[in-house]
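Record type: ASSEMBLY
Status: queued
Input:
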Amino acid sequence: MAQNIDPKLNYEETKRKTGYVTRCESTQETYDRIGFMSGLEVHQQLRTSQKLFCRCPAGVYQKPDDFDAEVIRHMRPTLSELGEYDGTALMEFKTRKNIIYRLKSKTTCTYEVDDTPPFPLNREALAISIEISLVSKLNIVGEVHITRKQYLDGSIPTGFQRTAIIGVEGEIPLKNKKVRLIQLSLEEDSCREVSDIGHTRVYRTDRLGMPLIETVTYPDMTNPDEVKEACNYIRFLGRSTGKVRTGIGAGRQDVNVSCKGGTRVEIKGVAHSRWIPELTHNECFRQWALLSIREMLIARCPDSKTWKPSYVLLELHAFNSKNGFTKDAKANGLKLIAVNLPGFKGILSHFTQPGKMFANELSERLKVIACLDLPNMAHSEEFDPLFAQSDWDKIDILLKPAENDAQLIIRGPEADIQTALETIEERCLMAFAGVPPETRKSFENGTTIFERVLPGADRMYPDTDSAPIPLENEYIESLSKNQPEEVVHRYKRLKDWNVPEDCFTYIFKKNLFPLIERIITELDINPAFAGKFFGHAVKWVEGQYKPAAEFDYKIIYALFRFIKHRNLDYSIARRMLPHVYQYPKMEFESVLTSIKYKTVDKEQIVSKIPFLRNKFAEIRISAGPFVEHNWIMGQLRQQAEGNMSMKELHEAVGN
Amino acid sequence: MTDDIFQGYKGSALEVLKKYNVRVWGQAVVKTTRGEFTGTVLPRSENDDDKHIVMKIPTGYNIGLDIATITGMKETGYKKANYKIPEKEFPYTEGLPKVKLIGTGGTIASRLDYRTGAVIPAFSPGELYGAVPELASICNLTTEKVFAVFSENMSPDHYKKLAIAIGKEIEAGVDGIVIGHGTDTLHHTAAALTFMVQNSPVPIVLVGSQRSSDRPSSDAALNLMHACTAAGHGDIAEVMVCMFGPTSDEYGFLHRGTRVRKMHSSYRSTFRTIGDTPLATITRKGMKAIKETYNHRRKDRKVAILPYFEEKVSIVYYYPNMQPDIIDSLVEHGYKGIVIAGTGLGHVNKPLYPAIERAAKAGVAIYMTVQTLWGYVHMFVYDTGRDLMALGVVPAENMLPEVAYIKLGWALGQTNDLEEVKRIMLSPINDETTPREPYNGYLIYQGGVSEVEDFIRKVHK
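Status: finished
Output:
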């Protein structure tokens, strides 16, 4: 039965039928057609010295294997409002995970491992979150209430995240539209995962409890590039205060995506905003593909209530797969179960994402919910089948499938098989409904995998360990005095200064605007030169060299001031920069020696031009219009830098 | 009826709600000088101020609004929340032991009303089954609420009621008793029950939790499973405390009721046996004895219930420069017994001597314990000790101060004859004093030492 369709052909065919186009080929019409809708939850760590609810240092990290002690815990679901267990809760309980926390004395106290109640909320973090709420034009609450938001994956040892709303209903301007903000909350960061194998998940607790703000937008974005633009704007807003952390892991976003007729799916923990367009594009099409699967299934089996898979335990010795699938099962005492999925022929190899098919959705859930380590599944529509046709024929005898059925072979420990079968049945039934609400994990190539069931709304509880914190008008007013200029105004000013647009992202990402402004006003430097100096030269140097000590951008102010006082031309700065960047503690005078700078009279430099012109005539090999000019410039540039402006030299060389 | 509509609101905040005609549980749009807010008005905690109104906004979070900023409010809907723990009938399984869970008011199993934050206790077997379904595979559980007080409000009357209730259950034929109790004074109750319920044929297990069961990381469910296992299947027929061994979810300890003490204000593994090893470790699979001698489970129902207590007993925790009037005032107020928690081997300063002498002359029973908790009172070592004994202070061996307090109250509840009291005090009922202190009865290792650090890296804390 299994070979009646060609999986590769079917994949391409379903991809075409779904109407998938690559992002380059897509236009706004593409996204309007599938009803692209997306919202953001942008997380940014705050630059405080201590954690949010205890006095442990913030921003001190440990290596995965570097720990002083371990604690093991389990998470139990608590009953939700209607006495039902929340979907995620039930899933996490099914997984029966042993959660191990790796503790380092330096960064972890009894609060992080939930052995002591919270200490009063860090006031520095509160002030920063209010400042950022003010620049985000949010309505600031009158009293901050700490809420518990349940997470049962173990990423927070209490089983909930302490979080508090600071402001609601704001907006940010994009190039072509305004995006509304739902809220901004101040919350504690979670653990970092070390590993998740079988029934054991390991976390380290260094990052746990660090203060974080989460800015949530309405789903106002209607194409992938807008999502990225909004994300960058929110991050730049935070950075414009100079009080958020930057660097790897300091900012992460969850991206919510749905298509017309789809469901809100949350792509978790996207580390870079540049990944957003591809991820949201693919997710929207994944949902679109799942809707096409839904149609096919309903046509084949109109009443999903009667749909039921059948299964049979396989005799291990009778089967022999490629790649050690059966051999490893024998060695590790795993069971093989064949499952028949009525009406799923052509669905398993149905396109979902670039390089992924519906069967992946099953395998990913088996890994997360039933804890079956990969590879946990073989199926009848693989591109590169693990089992030979003769094996599938044997399975057909056992399962007696009908014409339109598809088959799986799942592999796992006996204790997990029941959950595995339930997981398969559950996901297949969801295919009749369309798009299951999930959180998904992102990959750099723009695809995602199942992470967990999307939690319900009823997982918020007031934190009985913390008192509400009133926010007086005077306090908010005092904080509003620290407010930085709005990012959108700064955009305009950079434009007015003729700073090229390709410099903007770098300048806002690093929050360099205030420094550039200071250099321009205090040292009387050409604004476009200063902007380009950072947006091109500094950015380039950062990618090329490693500084010997911590490099603070303020050194560049000192560099320009030095050049000014030394009466040099600012053009020397570019040559000094690589040295200054690599050795931030070196005196500028020594840098000049290192780059072999010599004071030369302007006249002396210019006087060499006639000689060089003659020389060029002798060695000339090309007849282009500016060849002579460029060659002479090249010969004199090094002597000229610092002694005269390049513009003057340019004019002196003439053509 | 205003209470019902404006739950918890008072003063100015109540006035604002009345002015705009908005009720608790009303969905409202609120205009303020800081912008517009929408959400459901929630009840306010009684202890919070009257300057804010609490709302649950549509995303599920709670916020407070400063009434000084409110310029208008409009109720657009109303939805009252009623929360009840789901009850499922506790299934009866033939062959499983009968365990009685006695409630004292501590919330062993509970959950939070997600709207108000109020803790709703789960107590009936049905409710408990809803919260901890694993219990049904351990025992056949029935429950009874004897009274409802917080742990810190437990009093001698409660100890007596509890002892009598336990006696009745044992006579009625249960296989084991679990007592749900707040943790703060769990060890006081454990000591009291050891003295008041003697020769029990079945386990009597006191259990609590350090993290309430409305939290996913709670220790309550596991403690309850451990306690029911110890009560239903365990062989130790004594009054015990069952709480976490390590802070990890690994195993519980069964501590003898007279040697156990709460040693950390918030840790899960807060209960420790002092000056000895715990009785046993316990997991859901069963109990593993650590101590070789203990009272074994029996088939008979011969239990002695001795519910006596004299309330005029006090603990005096000695500190340098304590003034004699502390002792005098106790005597003046009619106290019949004083337990001193002395320094070191059992000492107090000289200026207290006359007061102690006056107390002894007035017929007050005075016993010396050590505030070091570990170790014995040794009053022959220094003159101070000898002087104190001459004044009438009786050394109480290695009895923990709290246990000595409970035992002295229990002894004085039976007799005023100081010689008889002394006989009772110094005849151990169940290891409140022990003839010897094992070398592994005092293990407080200090972090930072390489061998200790190696140990905690290898063994789950």
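Annotation: The domain at 98-305 of chain B is CATH 3.40.50.1170 (Rossmann fold).
Annotation: The radius of gyration of chain B is 26 Å.
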